Predict the 3D structure of the following.
Amino acid sequence: MLVITFRKDREQAGADLAEHDIKYDELILVNSLEAKAKVIEERGIAFYFDDQDECLQGIDRNTTVLKIRNGGNFAFDTQRWLYSERTGKQI
């Protein structure tokens, strides 16, 4: 399993993963949210999990995207997704 994160501090990122007992094969730090999509394409990653819509937008259709629901992207009291003009479209 690869962990791709927009962080500057590799040591802290590793500590955060260890704190939550997350096991991984490789930790990849990128310098922008958009850079995650490039790594996913280069590595031929088939499944990708994230909680930020901005990270999911640039990923091509060959990768299955799974969105993690949390208090930052979902209003549990009203049971509605939260998104911005940039990331969502009301239908």
About this structure: Helices lie at 10-19, 33-43, 53-56.
